[in-house]
Amino acid sequence: MTSPITTNTSTERSVQTGEHLELGQRGEALAAAYLQKAGYRIVAANFSVPVGRNRVGAVINVEIDLVAYEDEVLCFVEVKSRASDWFAPPEANVDRRKQRQIARAARMYRRMFGLAAAPYRYDVVTVVLPAEAELGSEFEIQLLRNYWNEDKLRKRRWSGTYYE
C-alpha cells in the first residue's frame, strides 16, 4: 500500500507567504519602536535601490529595512524576525552575501544624499515573535550594534603564487 503524498497547494503557499510577510512587518514595526525608544532617529524605512544585474540580466534590488541616526552616526539596520529561535538565532541569516548587498545599497544611499564622509555602521535587530503571541504578548528583541564592517567583505586577491 502506498502512502498519499501531501503537497502544499498554491492557496496554502500564499497563506504561508502572507503570514511570513505579516511576521516581517510586525517585526520591523517593533524594531523601529525599540530603536526610537533607545534614542535612534529613524530617517527611512524599507529603502530599496537597484544595485546591479544578475547573470541573466535581471535587475537586483536591495532593501535596507531601517536607516537611522544614533547621535551623529548613520546606522543601516537589518531586521530579522522569526517565530522561533529554536533552530538558529535570527542573525544567522545575515550572511556574507546579505551583508555585501546591504553594504552596496548603503553606499548608494550615502552617495545619493551626500553623506560619503559621514560616520556610519551596520546594525542588526532580531525579533522573536512566537506564533501564538498576540500583539501585546511577550516577544524578544535584541540590538546588535556594529554587527559587521566592510573591511571583512573585501574580496581577497589571488597572489599568483602556486604551492606544490
| CATH topology (level 3) name of the domain at 39-150 | Trna Endonuclease, Chain: A, domain 1
Unreliable stretches (pLDDT < 50, length at least 5) are 1-16
Tell me the series of helices and strands, N- to C-terminal.
Answer: HEEEHEE
CATH architecture field of the domain at 39-150: 3-Layer(aba) Sandwich
| Count of extended strands | 5
**Largest beta sheet: strand ordering:** 1-2-3-4-5
Could you describe the largest sheet, including whether it forms a barrel?
A: 5 strands, mixed
- What average pLDDT do the residues reach? 81
**What is the strand content?**
25-35%
Level of helix content? 25-40%
List the helices and strands and how they pair.
Blueprint: H1 10-37, E1 41-53, E2 59-70, E3 73-82, H2 96-112, E4 120-128, E5 140-148
Structure description:
There is one protein chain. With 164 residues, the protein is α+β, with helices and mostly antiparallel strands. The chain has a domain at 39-150: Trna Endonuclease, Chain: A, domain 1, CATH 3.40.1350. 27% of the residues lie in helices and 32% in strands. The chain contains 2 helices and 5 strands. Strands 1-2-3-4-5 form a 5-stranded mixed β-sheet, with helices on both faces. Strand 3 (73-82), helix 2 and strand 4 (120-128) form a beta-alpha-beta unit. The longest helix is centred in the N-terminal third of the chain and has 28 residues, at 10-37. Residues 1-16 have low confidence and may be disordered.
